[in-house]
Amino acid sequence: MKPQLKILMITSECVPYAKTGGLADVVGALPQVLQRMGHEVIVVMPRYGSIDGARYGLRRFWDSMGVWMGDQLEWCAVDSADNDGVPTYFIEFNQYFERTGLYHDAEFNDYWDNPRRFAFLTRAGLQLSHDLGFAPDIVHVHDWQSALASAYLKIWHWNDPILGGAASVLTIHNIAYQGKYSASNFEYIGLQWGNFTPDKFEDYGAVNFLKGGIVYADVVNTVSPTYAAETRTPALGYGLAPYLNDKGTDYVGILNGVDYTQWNPAVDRLIPAQYSPDHMAGKAVCKAALQHRFGLDADPDVPIVGVVSRLVAQKGLDLLASAVEEILHDMAVQFVILGSGDKGLERYYGGLPGRYPGRVGVYIGYSNEIAHWIEAGADFFIMPSIYEPCGLNQIYSLKYGTLPIVRATGGLDDTVIQYDEATGNGTGFKFWEPSASAIYFTTGWAVSTYFDRRAHIDKMVQTAMHIDYSWERSADQYLALYARAIEKKARL
Ligand code: ADP
Ligand code: GLC
Question: Which residue from 91, 247, 340, 417 lies 20 to 30 Å from 461 (Cα-Cα)?
Fold first, then answer.
């Protein structure tokens, strides 16, 4: 029996409490799996104003905890809750977290004090672990928001009887968000000016959280093997490729898993009818219900293409916007689109149902239930991402027998198997060029397969639904990564 590990996770999002994207799904699921494997995990996150404390059973844990930020001592409170067996702690500091948004206001503008908010979260997470007497073997942090933990550990806590033994692991979920802010924040962040150098935190005069985190972390990973390779190149490294390459074999890709207690049509209670590979009738029920809910023509024989996405440039939905009307003009197809984000894209997609009544359904906003309905009721699921570190929706789609149409980048390339017209093998339709015409032609390929080679579609649906991306496999890879981090730290 391998020894049990103590793991501290610090994160800005976690399901079910606060979510803007896949990071929350990952941090909601991985700790529970690790816990079931016999390890001890605690999670620390902000007590956002949007979290409904009564609904999730949050309790006051500590009335006050002091956290040093530069030469300023900030006093916060701590709440706690049980996330299916994983102790989760919420840092309550109203000045920073009592707001509606996680990172930005209703107009999608970043909060000006984000560097202070998340540096504070990170220091508070370490302080909490220390004050709890929880001596972690591993401090596992996610994205720029908690990336500074590795630096705090090495600069401030190396000699600490509780935190001094911790090795650090940084997971990059999206390298385009680096936490790059004015150097005027550096004093408050509290990392000593001697570290404000180009090989660490300094980035053309600004402070770069992710860069410093990469440099200081014992090991770094991202969320798919292909994205790990892509981020080592200038095109997708967003300036950080040299630092990732410096990590050598201490930078790897581990594909995300899926929480099949939430995302499996056989047990999904949010959808109108359950179904499984051997009992597919429920999928037709879900399709009819989706058409009804969105006022689409009630036609079981026209394929529905689904979208569930943050509406941001990364997701390629501006390219889809340039293709969708031509697709609607030329093909017998319906669209159901769920998303929020960029105001221009919200306006554009929000206007489509009015112009294509009965053929396009759109919900601008955030709705977990509708996300499940689309996964279940659509025939195809499109993700034309410019880059995609992992992508969870296409993996959910596979389980729901909703064939993905994806650009072959990052995790999309790793998880979708290209359709082979000769055999009917494959699980989806891939294209490479980031263009409206590639989207047009690949959607056309999927739609014509739907009408002309239905047996192939049925075979692909079966193949897709049997593929298993459960977290256990990914968790084993994280444990191997933790072991490497511990070994690395021991050698220092
Ligand atoms: P990213 O993290 O880049 O947004 P992922 O595919 O990894 O992309 O994860 C997105 C997650 O967020 C999925 O669980 C998806 O269902 C969810 N999601 C995205 N937009 C919405 C929305 N408007 N309403 C409900 N869920 C959404
Ligand atoms: C990021 C990426 C997405 C990934 C998710 C969880 O938000 O954009 O591709 O699936 O993190 O790792």
Answer: 340
CA of 173 relative to ligand 2 center, distance in Å: 5
Ligand 1 contacts CB of residue 274 (under 6 A) = no
- Could you identify the atom of ligand 2 that is nearest to the CA of residue 411? 9
CA-nearest residue for atom 14, ligand 1, is 22
Mutate to test the pocket of ligand 2, among 392, 395, 407, 414 (most ligand atoms within 8 A of CB): 392
Residue that has been written with the tokens 């001592």 in this structure: 73
Q: Tell me if 297 is assigned to some domain.
A: yes
- 13: domain range? 6-257+471-491
Instruction: Say yes or no: 122 and 154 in one domain.
Output: yes
Residues 361 and 409 in one domain: yes
Q: List the chain pLDDT tens, one digit each, 492 residues.
A: 456 999 999 999 999 999 999 999 999 999 999 999 999 999 999 999 999 999 999 999 999 999 999 999 999 999 999 999 999 999 999 999 999 899 999 888 999 999 999 999 999 999 999 999 999 999 999 999 999 999 999 999 999 999 999 999 999 999 999 999 999 999 999 999 999 999 999 999 999 999 999 999 999 999 999 999 999 999 999 999 999 999 999 999 999 999 999 999 999 999 999 999 999 999 999 999 999 999 999 999 999 999 999 999 899 999 999 999 999 999 999 999 999 999 999 999 999 999 999 999 999 999 999 999 999 999 999 999 999 999 999 999 999 999 999 999 999 999 999 999 999 999 999 999 999 999 999 999 999 999 999 999 999 999 999 999 999 999 999 999 999 999 999 987
Question: Could you give the angle at which helices 343-355 and 317-330 cross, rounded to 10 degrees?
Answer: 10
Structural contact between residues 458 and 449, judged by C-beta atoms closer than 8 angstroms: no
Let me know whether 153 and 195 are in one domain: yes
Alpha helices in 234-392 (DSSP H): 234-237, 241-246, 281-293, 317-330, 343-355, 368-377
Instruction: Report if residue 262 sits inside a domain.
Output: no
Q: How open is the CA angle 468-219-116, to the nearest 5 degrees?
A: 100
Shortest-distance atom of ligand 1 to CA 383: 6
Query: Which ligand lies nearest the alpha carbon of 394?
Result: 1
Instruction: Say how many Å lie between the CA of residue 369 and the centre of ligand 2.
Output: 20
Is the beta carbon of 410 within 6 A of some atom in ligand 1?
Answer: no
Query: pTM score > 0.90 for this model?
Result: yes
